[in-house]
TrEMBL record:
PANTHER family xrefs: SUCCINATE--HYDROXYMETHYLGLUTARATE COA-TRANSFERASE (PTHR48207:SF3)
InterPro entries found in the cross-reference section: CoA-transferase_III_domain (IPR050483), CoA-Trfase_fam_III (IPR003673), CoA-Trfase_III_dom3_sf (IPR044855), CoA-Trfase_III_dom_1_sf (IPR023606)
The organism of origin for this protein: Plastoroseomonas hellenica
Keyword annotations: Transferase
One Gene Ontology MF term: transferase activity
Region (Disordered): 365-385
Pfam families, A to Z: CoA_transf_3 (PF02515)
Transmembrane segments: none
Protein name (record): CoA transferase
Length: 413
């Protein structure tokens, strides 16, 4: 059973995962993202970093000497430092494991074994431990030892091929989606796997251990909708389509007069009739070329050109308002400034102001998913390197000040 003390959020209520304690031996994005999700839902997360800190502390823009991303990336975590290459660190990790329900790591397969943190050693410390391992290609198979980051997972998972303009329209390389999507998706699957394994453990009542194996490549590959069954049955290879959707029209982004890209999704017959009327061309909906979705898909280039010419004569904000009044799904392509100001995000706590000791007042994204209608604020923001060394090592392992000083002197923490 969990032995962590439930930790309330700022509203005084414990999250649904309160009472679970998770150890993170993670770096960069995937494993820390998984544990952030678990921490957002109430779990106590202890993050182990090298003495120099997780690399993400240095990523992105800097504010007052710190990366703002870190505030979110390590929120709801207690951060300690350990040099895992030192033998003393192994014993500390195993001591911490004895107090934890789950371990999340994203080292290359076999790396923890080489550090003395084998599966047998981990389960000897906590026999019912759930171990979640995130790697590029998975824990077995011919590619298990190959290095990978999220971009490699996105490429092998088939996504990078699809995030491009249609074939023949550009010689530029396929574009990245703009965030570490492969890492984040793998983190989501790892968090789900941890919760599923813990649920099974509690249902069985026998304290069974579990190992969750998440590959970046497989996580991305799992998102490709019907691409694989279409290839297996028809031999068709899905191709990039730019801003459109190959099975529905009109659905695309159109540039307004002031340069704003507005996405319009009028791909059902009633919606297209509304759009055609708004454009002042209601007869378009009766033309054989555009009378139903299949016809519109076949003639999408001509249809997009018409909509594009109409949109180009209207400023973006006016265009959005006209489409909204007509009941046609549409929006500008939000920048982060648009997201931060969005009243829906604000009303649901998805954009919220947070006080961070390293940055002052700043913005954090809210918690997904909402449970019981609640979006709790973070219990803590990403701390300084080693901020929780004394609290964790004393509180869980019973080390005294002299013992911690000795570990610091020898470079273990």
């Amino acid at each position: 059973m969990p032995d962590a003390t439930p930790s309330p959020d700022a509203t005084g209520e414990a999250g649904p995962l309160a009472g679970l304690r998770v150890l993170e031996l993670g770096h960069f994005v995937a494993a820390p993202f998984a544990t952030r999700l678990l921490g957002d839902l109430g779990a106590e997360v202890i993050k182990v970093e090298p003495p120099q800190g997780d690399p993400v502390r240095q990523w992105g823009a800097r504010h007052q000497g710190h990366a703002p991303w870190w505030s979110v990336h390590a929120r709801n975590k207690r951060c300690i430092t350990l040099d895992l290459k030192k033998p003393e660190a192994r014993e500390i990790v195993l001591g911490l494991i004895s107090h934890c329900d789950a371990l999340v790591e994203n080292f290359r397969p076999g790396q923890l074994d080489r550090l003395g943190l084998t599966r047998d050693a981990l389960l000897a410390a906590r026999p019912d431990l759930v171990i979640a391992r995130i790697s590029g290609y998975g824990q077995d198979g011919p590619g298990r030892d190959k290095p990978a980051f999220g971009v490699i997972g996105e490429a092998i998972g088939g996504l990078r091929h699809l995030t491009n303009h249609p074939p023949g329209s550009t010689d530029l390389p396929p574009v990245r989606v703009g965030v570490s999507l492969g890492d984040s998706v793998a983190g989501i699957y790892a968090a789900l796997g941890v919760v599923a394994a813990l649920w099974r453990r509690e249902r069985r009542g026998g304290g069974s251990a579990a190992e969750v194996d998440v590959a970046l490549t497989e996580s991305v590959f799992s998102l490709l909708e019907g691409a694989l069954p279409e290839f297996g049955t028809l031999g068709s290879i899905r191709q990039p389509t730019g801003g459109g959707i190959p099975t529905a029209a009109p659905t695309n982004a159109y540039r307004a007069r002031d340069g704003i890209w507005v996405l319009i999704a009028a791909n059902s017959d009633p919606l297209f009739r509304r759009l055609a009327a708004l454009m002042g061309q209601p007869s378009l909906a009766e033309e054989p070329r555009f009378a139903d979705n299949q016809a519109r898909v076949r003639h999408v280039a001509a249809l997009d050109a018409m909509i594009g010419a109409w949109a180009a004569g209207i400023d973006g904000s006016v265009l959005e308002g006209l489409l909204e009044d007509a009941g046609v799904p549409a929006t500008r392509a939000f920048t982060i400034a648009d997201c931060a100001a969005d009243p829906q995000f604000r009303a649901r706590g998805m954009v919220r102001e947070v006080e961070d000791p390293l940055h002052g007042t700043m913005l954090h994204p809210g918690v997904v998913p909402r449970i019981d209608g609640r979006s709790p604020p973070p219990r803590s923001t990403g701390p300084q390197i080693g901020a929780d060394n004394e609290a964790v090592l004393t509180g869980l392992l019973g080390l005294d000040a002299a013992g911690i000083a000795a570990l610091r002197e020898s470079g273990v923490v």
